[in-house]
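Reagents: none. Just compute today. Ferrous iron transport protein A.
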Amino acid sequence: MNVLPDTKKPRPLSCYKEGVSVRVISLQGGRCFCSRLLSMGIIPGTIINVLRNCGRMTIRIRSSEYALGKEMANKILAIPICGCCD
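Predicted 3D structure written out:
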């Protein structure tokens, strides 16, 4: 899998609340899933801003916004880029 080393324990993207910025650490899916995320610009190292998390997530990557289902968000492991979510 694609993984970035880090000392914090990564959690699924679906665990983070609105307003939190996270860094993607790894993707836990097959080739098709990873290819779809790559087309959105979601790769290890990418910073994601969580805009909404109420079942379906709305996220911002750079200047683009995307909606992700809960299953998809559960397969993206990330860590917060600030110390607010430890």
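The radius of gyration is 12 Å.
Action item: order primers for follow-up constructs.
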